[in-house]
Amino acid sequence: MSDNFKVAIIGSGPAGLSAAARAAALGMSHVLLEKTDHLSDTIYKYQKGKHIMATPDQLVLRSDMSFAAGKREDILGTWDSQALSQKVNVRLDAEVLDISGSKGNFKIQLKGGDEISAENIVLGIGTQGNPNKLRCPGGDQPFVGYQLDDPAEHLDKHIIVVGGGDAGIENALGLANPDLGNTVTLLQRSDGFPRSKPANVALLEEARADGRLDFLISASPKELLADRMIVEAKDGEIELPCDMVIARLGSAPPRKLIEGWGIEFTGPDREAYPILSEEFESVVPGIFVIGALAGYPLIKHCMNQGYDVIERINGNKSLKPADQPLLEAIFKKVPGGKSVDYWIDHLRKDVPIFEGVSRLQMREFLLDSRMHAPKADEIIFRRNQAGSSLWAVVDGSVQVEINPNDTRQRVELGAGQIFGEIGLISGRPRSATIRAGRNAILIEVPRSAALKLIDTIPAVKRKVDTIATERQIRQIFGNGLDVKWIEKLIANAEYVDAPAGMTIIEEGSDDLDVYIIRYGSALVEKNIGGKDVFLSYVPAGAYVGEMALFENRVRTASVKTAIKSQLIRLSGEIFEELLSAEPELRERIRETVVERRRLNAFVESKKDNFDSVSDYYSQVADFLISEGLGEATDALLIDESLCVACDNCELACAETHQGISRLDREAGQAYESIHVPTSCRHCEHPHCMTDCPPDAIHRGADGEVFIDETCIGCGNCQRYCPYGVIQMQKIPPKRPGLFAWFLFGSGPGPGQPSQKWINQKTKGKDVGKFAVKCDMCKGIKGGPACVRACPTGAAIRVSPENYLNTVNKNGGGQ
């Protein structure tokens, strides 16, 4: 065997193996170097019996090695036999220590002293050997592992899997086999599973529905003890028994080694990827990078890259990527007839949030995005409209209406700038109306794709965070604020992740920091007579902490988070300088302080009847937060002191929605006269949207969360909703009209028909089910039918801040 090759391929994962197979098929002199004693070590280390998916489904496979969805063992066996039959030149137990030389004459030093020469090098070494570690007190316990070989080795244990990517989900499913007797809980940091394949998420949902495992979203380890884990969940801390932890937190390239070979990365972050050309060539001519190391972890992508890179080394300059037709369809609607390559280069060069995104990552990300070329002055979205997608101005400009009372007052956002980021982060309605400028070309990134981008690429997260912070500061304190103050505040800003119930401002303290609630919510309380009295509710997008600047630098009340939240802490000293330099802003904030002083004075005036007032405020606030109003945007409440139990609300709801009521008046919890019936809260970040396979759940223009006719009845939304407000119902039979019922007794009459009548009408028929929930009577003039039908005014729909503040102003409702 010659030690001089046209190409040396390092790493026999799917990418490297596919590259070697193509070289063998072309008759190209090659060697495939693998440091272990078997092919495809990454797949080899997957848990035994793991089912491997062949996604994306719409992407064609280019490779001389076959690949279809199946078990780990079957896929590895197929690859072993095909590598042998196709005469792939494999060298096992060949660990690379160093690379030197240049294109046409590279020298590869192997462990043991052997040296190999090659004209070109293809790196397909992956990242799995460098996993991200569990970073919490106790994270170095001996029962913490970073891979799972065989689930059957673990019996009758309390096991926590940390990480909701594909690997974490698959490990949790394997360990949750009923025959093993394990109690399995998966923790996912984000509010959903943006990095995971939809099919894996569906299997996870099914396993939870069957009682085989549980999972928590918006949850992360706080501390790991000898026999339990303390977890920061959305609603506060919880303790879980724990005998074993599998942490699947992703991995990073072996950067120090690779940089030693002259390869440069897209940025300084640990998880940044190498700088690559369209042909996968690094900044070192002749060294190519493919597979997970290039930022593409999906097997089909990796195998296509392996095929393509060998074709290009062989001189095939006309070969287009396998995803080219899909991307061409996306850009076809954009005027100008520019190529896919043009748009990818343009986006990466001229839209700053994409600067840290590699070309390969851009291609994957663009498959989930949409391009728009709106007409001048066309409305992109309106103020207070619901929406959580992220937008960027690629060419031209957009106009932001900054004054809802005067649409002529506008600020221009030019090419390269983003908008919509506050709705993406906070879940709150759009804060301004956006209109297209002349020759505008825009890219819209759906929430799931935007979160994946932010979660995957630190440079994108930093840029989005900085822009969102600037916009929130301007939105709260005025667009006329001098840029020097904006920059100074941002430079000293700190992001604070706060669990539910965390005190961020303590009454009586002398710090001056101001907090913007980025997402989540908070409660303001004042201590009187040794008891905490509820004052107000503060939603995402608002701020707290400014009163100390007007009250002799002393905190006059405490603020604690209602649910898991993220805050932006602004330096009190810098904020104080700002108010001194901007008298108009100081006066505007002083007006807010006067209103809050009035509220404090009201509570103080009640101290003679303090016990009842204090208990009422605090318990009402705690009750409503526990019922989900801390993350609600619109909730139905019933004043039981006015309710006469006529059930007109349910009847009206049923009559409006195909005979199926979206609310249960009697169900739900109550505190004194305040009743929260079983009805949708229309959450800031709806749990039901976390995994909807047909993408049938949407937000309407007024913030309503609704389910459209594409629902397939999978039940995922019902399982995700923590408030039990979604039903899975049979598609109802058509009922006779009201006239036929009134005169002839035909049909079930007004309201929701009995299950007996539905069963009689659907007997013997194949009737599907669909998800049913409140849609706030979307599109119906006059608003929600339940409120309109209430004869006493007992039923009201409110946002949480409006209700809680109304309680205060009405003297506690007593």
TrEMBL record:
InterPro entries: 4Fe4S_Fe-S-bd (IPR017896), 4Fe4S_Fe_S_CS (IPR017900), cNMP-bd_CS (IPR018488), cNMP-bd_dom (IPR000595), cNMP-bd_dom_sf (IPR018490), FAD/NAD-bd_sf (IPR036188), RmlC-like_jellyroll (IPR014710), RnfB_subfamily (IPR050294). The keyword Iron applies. Residues 353-471, 477-596 form the Cyclic nucleotide-binding domain. The keyword Transmembrane does not apply. Pfam families: cNMP_binding, Fer4_11, Pyr_redox_3. Residues 634-666, 703-731, 768-801 form the 4Fe-4S ferredoxin-type domain. Transmembrane segments: none annotated. GO terms for molecular function: 4 iron, 4 sulfur cluster binding; metal ion binding. It comes from the Bacteria. Keywords: 4Fe-4S, Electron transport, Iron, Iron-sulfur, Metal-binding, Transport. This is 4Fe-4S dicluster domain-containing protein.
